Amino acid sequence: MCLSGIFFFLFYGYGSIEQRSKTVTLIGEAGYTSVADHINMENYEAVEEFYSAYLENRDAMVTISDVNPDGIIGAVTFLYREGIFHLCTMKC
Fold this sequence. Notes:
By secondary structure, the chain is an alpha+beta fold. The protein contains three helices and five strands; from the N terminus they run ααββαβββ. A five-stranded mixed beta sheet has the order 2-1-3-4-5.
């Protein structure tokens, strides 16, 4: 388990929707886009901006943090550069 998973476990424990919701909110308050199953996305506007840029064939990038029930926080980055779509995922 990496540092983010340890942080989540030590301060919030595992699994409950309330715990994941609080974590999603904290990440959102830090200015990042975040989400978890059955919890509304924080800072969803960044995703809408990315999609608009993609439709207009403009370079864009957005990263979404995903809070999992097991305490792992993942990240998915969508990158659109020079007409090519890239996807990068990471779990920590």
